[in-house]
Specification:
The complex is a heterotrimer of chains A (317), B (167) and C (456). Chain A is of the alpha+beta class and 317 residues long. Chain A is built from six helices and 16 strands. In chain A, helix 2 packs across helix 3. The mean pLDDT of chain A is 91. Chain B has 167 residues and is an alpha+beta fold. Chain B has a four-stranded mixed sheet, with helices on one face. Chain B is elongated and about 50 Å long. Helices cover 46% and strands 12% of the residues of chain C. In chain C, helix 2 crosses helix 9, helix 5 crosses helix 6 and helix 15 packs antiparallel against helix 16. The mean pLDDT of chain C is 94. Classes of the chains: A alpha+beta (317), B alpha+beta (167), C alpha/beta (456). The interface between B and C is large, with 43 and 57 residues.
């Protein structure tokens, strides 16, 4: 099937979504996604930041779709023409949605452990507005825990459903969910129960914001001071392929291996994540590549400093 | 887990629950959840965690799924309420015909604030959104009854009669 | 005097009893359909009648039925949407309360037409008294052989059950209704797939409003052409209108589509004019809280100067700039003592309370709208808030999973469009509006005339 996104045409399998097709093309035309995660079934459609315009439905039925559609949930048709960054309305709508996502967000990045690897930070940096007229009180929730390893900071949550759907997928019994409705909706176990599964720690990684954080790592270090290293250990439960985050010779935390677009390669078990924090537990393979323009990468200069030219007029380095 | 006696779902309730489940196709008994929760609430007055856990066991689903449903729908009481819960509709159409006045009158009469219960445990007064009685406003809902065309006098009468009935 | 179809026997004592209903000619449509008509014939008659969905969207009923998929081995479900929760709408309640057999009558014909053998009536949880009435009526229908196996010896089976909701406006959206019926939270589904392809339990499903299903029995009995004769243009037949607010006779009325708004509002047969003498009409919400509100001059006449009629087309004439919609037929009337800011805040509070929270624009935006409107109404607003309100509605509209986001935006956008001076008044005279009944003591009209004199 042929689909054209912002003028780039690509051939894809039937059943591919617009977002997947765009990621195949790559570059700036890829819509951002906060709730869709390819490792988790049925995710997507909730955050509304990946909305695009379908200017031509298909070869057979060339009518445009009347409304913007979520690219993560919309399958391509043969001959479909999609406008993402080439359509000002799409960019405008995206800006609006990002603003709405932020109005109730506490913006407590300076004390948030997710800062530096937060998808909401990246999203608002790239697609957001500089200011908002929102001047009301933000909604506030009590801080709680989902067990002794996972901290739940509901104020930061953007209700992406990733953690709920991930647990649905990996565990026969889900203990936490989205309670209440509207902007009072909260992720909770209702009865202060722990999320009890050998894989539960993965919800920390898939959380795009700092709503779910690792209690064994909280306030230990900012993520950009750490070096992400590919590591492996022989584990009975999971593949043992993980990332260890090191400062000197110490392992500060263990996470899933990252994949492009804020996603991850494969799940790891709680033992690897929370209990194996000695270098001797792991076989360290080497430094992990992170996108060049990520906060994580900010200390890893690829160009020697002497080549830097200061362009004072444009205030650019 | 030992279930507290006071929230135990009885065999008689089970009979009723089975008729609810029978309405839906095989393997779809989860559909009966709202009816069952209504029954549980009508029996115990509110939805305790113990009661909801039993509902989850009956329907073979995780307790969290029952909590999710119970917190989503506004008709369910997640805390104990008074014997009589007076729910006033305050949405526009009722508001046009003096619902706010009736609501405030009732609160003042009973000496309580929104959502509170009187100290004798008889009355809870709550505000709610449109109940579909716009043409007969102002109105309140008391369990399964709609009491419409409210006036201060009719509220006095209602409260007196309920007090008497519970003596 | 307009023709009455649904309320033909309104006022007959004990109409909700089977015997009474049957004596008045009830269930003859079922006899006719099952004995001498094929399902395709029934569908054809509904198509000829031009019947449009009475729940709000006005989508042609027969066309909706024609989208149904017929996969091998999967049942088809007919769901009756009685989760009537739109502020200003209480017509379905009236129909079910006083004439439940009429609904069952129409549902049997409709289910027969689409080939459904199981049907659920999703009634909002607060209508517990209606649920009892419906359950009794269904029992009577079973007892008299209108439901169950092999109805009238035709070989056609149908079961109808009543399903109770539990307090959620969003469950009136058809996919949320299906989710709720499956025992989940009422989160609308993403479309496609549409319910006609994969609805309840993944099977093809039709969801229709109470009124739409009920009139099918009349259409079968009298023919689609007869129904199409009533009304104007593409707005055929009659419609139940729930009239409420500051009018003399609030209640449910059946009108022939095409009646003028003026006549509906002022004739004694219907609303009977304003509630209080000396208080003029200020505004009308013509189709339930979600549709744009219109001021007096625009609701009685279109911009072109023509009489506004109670039809889908006439009410929407002028688009969103100067028109509105027939919607679900919730006709709310405001006199000049009412404050449009207060009313808009009230609607926003409703939408804030009822948002399901599934997608971000609606979840966050409805709360924002309510907070701004609350400040304005309570004397804490500022000049910028007014434009901000319009900006927020633009952020929500069209970006959500279901039409709820649009429904929450339109009342606010239209109120600012048509009643901007009232919003400005609230910013300018913050102390005055702290009194809840500010326009009762000094209606905007009086204030404006004083104000203009001073200006001059």
């Amino acid at each position: 099937m042929k689909v054209t996104i912002d003028g780039h045409t690509i051939d894809v399998e039937p059943g591919t979504t617009i977002l997947q097709a765009a990621r195949k093309i790559g570059g700036d035309i890829v819509p951002p996604a906060m709730c869709y995660h390819s490792l988790i079934e049925n995710t997507g459609g909730n955050c509304r930041v990946c909305m695009v315009k379908v200017a031509q439905g298909s070869e057979r039925d060339p009518r445009p779709m009347p409304k913007l559609v979520p690219s993560c949930k919309t399958e391509v048709q043969d001959g479909m023409v999609v406008e993402n960054i080439s359509n000002p309305n799409v960019l405008e709508a995206r800006k609006n949605v990002v603003e709405l996502l932020l109005i109730n967000h506490p913006l407590d990045c300076p004390v948030c452990d997710q800062a530096g690897e937060c998808e909401l930070q990246n999203l608002s940096f790239k697609h957001g507005v500089e200011m908002t007229f929102f001047e009301e009180d933000k909604r506030v929730f009590e801080m709680t825990s989902l067990g002794d390893k996972i901290k739940l900071h509901m104020n930061r949550c953007i209700v992406c459903f990733r953690c709920v759907k991930l647990v649905d997928q990996i565990s026969p019994e889900r203990q936490h969910g989205l309670l209440y409705r509207g902007d009072r909706a909260e992720i909770s176990s209702y009865i202060q129960k722990a999320v009890d599964s050998e894989w539960s720690g993965n919800i920390i990684d898939v959380c795009p914001v700092g709503a779910l954080t690792d209690k064994t790592f909280r306030f230990k270090s900012r993520v950009w001071f750490l070096k992400p290293m590919e590591a492996h250990r022989d584990c009975d439960t999971c593949s043992g392929n993980a990332l260890v985050w090191m400062f000197g010779n110490e392992i500060y935390r263990v996470t899933m291996r990252n994949a492009p677009y804020g996603e991850h390669e494969e799940l790891i078990c709680n033992t690897c994540r929370f209990e194996k924090k000695n270098v001797s537990d792991w076989e360290i393979i080497g430094p992990r590549e992170y996108p060049k323009f990520s906060v994580i990468n900010q200390n890893n200069y690829v160009t020697p400093p002497k080549k830097v030219v200061i362009n004072a007029d444009k205030r650019l380095l | 887990m030992e279930t507290k006696q006071e929230y135990q779902i009885t065999d008689k309730m089970m009979e009723q629950i089975n008729t609810y489940i029978a309405k839906y196709p095989d393997g779809r008994k989860r559909s009966a959840i709202l009816s069952i929760l209504h029954l549980v609430q009508d029996t115990f007055g509110w939805l305790s965690v113990e009661a909801m856990d039993q509902v989850a066991a009956i329907l073979d689903i995780e307790p969290i799924k029952v909590y999710e449903v119970a917190t989503f729908y506004t008709m369910f009481n997640l805390k104990p309420v008074g014997k009589y819960k007076l729910e006033f509709c305050l949405t526009s159409c009722c508001g046009l015909r003096g619902a706010d006045d009736m609501y405030e009158y009732t609160l003042k009469k009973l000496g309580i604030q929104t959502g509170e219960t009187t100290s004798d445990g008889l009355f809870t007064v709550a505000a709610t959104e449109c109940l579909g009685a716009c043409g007969y406003a102002p109105m309140l809902r008391l369990d399964d009854k709609y009491i419409e065309h409210l006036t201060p006098e009719s509220i006095d009468e209602l409260i007196d009669s309920l007090r008497k009935a519970s003596e | 005097m307009g023709r009455k179809i649904i309320l033909k026997h309104d006022g007959t004592p004990n109409l909700k009893d089977y015997e009474v209903y049957r004596k008045l000619g009830g269930y003859r449509a079922v006899e006719k359909a099952l004995k001498i008509m094929s399902p395709a014939d029934v569908m054809e008659q509904v198509k000829i009648s031009g019947l449009r969905g009475r729940g709000g969207a006005g989508f042609p009923t027969a066309l909706k039925w024609s989208f149904l998929a017929h996969p091998e081995g999967k049942p088809i479900y007919l769901l009756c949407n009685a989760d009537e929760s739109e502020p200003g709408t209480f017509k379905d309640r009236y129909l079910m309360q006083y004439n439940p057999h009429f609904l069952i009558d129409g549902m049997i014909c409709s289910a027969y037409a689409i080939g459904a053998h199981t049907s659920y009536i999703y009634v909002r949880g607060e209508y517990k008294f209606i649920i009892r009435i419906l359950e009794k009526a269904i029992q009577e229908a079973y007892a008299n052989g209108w439901l169950g196996k092999n109805i009238l010896g035709s070989g056609y089976d149908l079961d109808i059950y009543v399903h109770s909701g539990a307090g959620a406006y969003i469950c009136g959206e058809e996919t949320a209704l299906i989710e709720s019926l499956e025992g989940k939270k009422g989160h609308p589904r993403m479309k496609p797939p549409f319910p006609a392809i994969a609805g309840l339990y993944g099977c093809p499903t039709v969801v229709n409003n109470v009124e739409s299903l009920a009139v099918v029995s009349w259409i079968i009995q009298n023919g689609g052409e007869e129904y199409a004769k009533i009304g104007v243009g593409r707005s055929t037949g009659t419609k139940l209108i729930s009239a409420s607010g500051n009018i003399k006779n609030p209640g449910v009325y059946e009108i022939e589509l095409g009646l003028s708004v003026n006549e509906f509002l002022y004739s004694d047969e219907y609303c009977g004019g304003m509630q209080f003498q000396g208080r003029d009409l200020k505004a009308v919400v013509a189709g339930g809280s979600s549709v744009p509100v219109l001021p007096k001059n625009l609701i009685l006449k279109t911009v072109a100067g023509e009489d506004r009629l109670m039809t889908y087309e006439s009410l929407s004439e002028g688009g969103f700039e100067t028109g509105t919609m027939l919607g679900s037929g919730g006709f709310i009337v405001y006199d000049e003592a009412q404050c449009m800011v207060r009313n808009t805040w009230n609607f926003s509070r409703f939408y804030h309370d009822e948002s399901c929270g599934q997608c971000s624009p609606c979840r966050e935006g409805t709360g924002w709208l309510e907070k701004v409107l609350y400040r304005l109404e309570h004397g804490e607003g500022n000049e910028r808030d007014i434009d901000q309100l319009v900006a927020i509605t633009k952020k929500i509209e069209g970006n959500t999973i279901c039409p709820f986001g649009d429904a929450a935006s339109w009342p606010v956008a239209s109120a600012v469009r048509h009643f901007r001076h009232e919003f400005e008044y609230h910013v300018k005279y913050r102390e005055k509006v702290k009194n809840r009944k500010h326009f009762e003591t000094e209606p905007m009209r009086l204030f404006m005339s004083e104000f203009l004199k001073v200006e001059a």
